[in-house]
Amino acid sequence: MNSEILVCDASYFRIDYEINPYMDTGLQPDVRAAIAEHEAIVRAHQAAGRHVRHIPAAWECPDMVYTANAAVVRGSRAVLGDPPPERKSEVPYFRDWLEADGFEVLEAPYPFSGQGDALACGELLLAGYGQRTDRRMHAVLADYLDYDADQIVALRTISAQWYDLDLAVAVVAADTIAYRPHALDEPSRQRLQGLHRDRGLDLVEVSTAEAARFALNLVSDGATVTMTAGAPRLAADLRARGFTVVELDTTELRKGGGGVRCTALTL
């Protein structure tokens, strides 16, 4: 899990628009502090043994640091994200990088938040919708990325607070998911309970307060969990299950609505 990831530096990170509830053009990030936070995240990935690849930032793309929305990748194929209009300028940069690295790239035919709404969990794909992703993308992902229909687990987030699934659900290991139940609608909660019942998936519940601090926006390789500081209960629950937990400051990066997971596209 997450053995190779793509990141983009935070050199041009700023708030030029407001496309999620966390963004405020009147509350600009301290760019030097944001760069330091991002560099600390990269070092933590490397210390955990993950291979980190880089794409350079572009001045006209202030959200490009959130590489998770660029695409979702499986094997040698990638489906590009189709983000809100304010972020469309990012797409050609990521398309070019992926194609140059040898990926077969498909453009999304419907709105799609990339990996933000497409979390691999073992042989399953936890597929978000309801905010930035059109549910019709689930069939596209199944077809192009070679998932069976029953491997796509549709999960609908209930409000813009959880604009991407990776704010409400985290894959900690192939058999462990952390989530905020009330960020999902009732059918989605039942689907996760079904995975617990039928597949033995361990479900770790997270409080609204910790989830709102981006606790679930984490990266795990199945042994080491790299997550935002400020979620002591989740960190303790994961350590009790045998995971190594690394907690990092993401104060500035969160001003754009993203945390650790948002800044890493799994390759």
In short:
The protein contains 6 helices and 15 strands.
Structure description:
With 267 residues, the protein is α/β, with parallel strands linked by helices. It is 24% helix and 24% strand. It is built from six helices and 15 strands. The protein has a three-stranded mixed sheet with strand order 2-1-15, sandwiched between helices.
The Cα radius of gyration reads 17 Å
What can be said about the biggest beta sheet? Answer: 3 strands, mixed
Please report the total strand number as a whole number.
15
Side-by-side strand order of the widest sheet: 2-1-15
Shape: globular
Structural class: alpha/beta
Instruction: Provide the low-confidence segments as ranges.
Output: none
Mean pLDDT, to the nearest integer, reads 97
Helical proportion, percent range: 10-25%
Q: If helices are DSSP runs of H or I spanning 4 or more residues, what is the number of helices?
A: 6
N-to-C terminal Cα separation, in Å? 10 Å
Question: In percent terms, what proportion of residues is strand?
Answer: 15-25%
N-to-C SSE series?
A: EHEEEHEEEHEEEHEHEEHEE
Helix and strand topology:
Blueprint: E1 4-8, H1 31-47, E2 51-55, E3 71-74, E4 77-80, H2 91-100, E5 104-106, E6 118-121, E7 124-129, H3 137-145, E8 152-156, E9 169-173, E10 176-179, H4 186-199, E11 202-205, H5 208-212, E12 219-220, E13 224-228, H6 232-240, E14 244-248, E15 265-266
Parallel strand pairs: 1-2, 4-5, 7-8, 10-11, 13-14
Antiparallel strand pairs: 1-15, 3-4, 6-7, 9-10, 12-13
